[in-house]
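User: Here's a chain of 81 residues. Predict its fold as tokens.
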Amino acid sequence: MKEFMLLIRNEIDHLSHLSPEENQQFLKACMDYIKRLTKDGNLKSAQPLVKEGKIISGSKDSWKDGPFNESKEVIIGYYHI
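Assistant: Prediction complete.
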């Protein structure tokens, strides 16, 4: 069976146009989707990406992934199905 990784993005203010009730409906739909994947045995893993980390300096070798002037969307997690 094929496997897929679905990236969860968070765009700045992407839910700001929703009313509190619509926001709750959206969150419920997300949770129902995760429950269905789990029930059907299709969810291998799902994790948020955390904001923790360490700054390492003083190394001779370095690399950069960028440059990025601004970040309007951020990957905040994934589903592995």
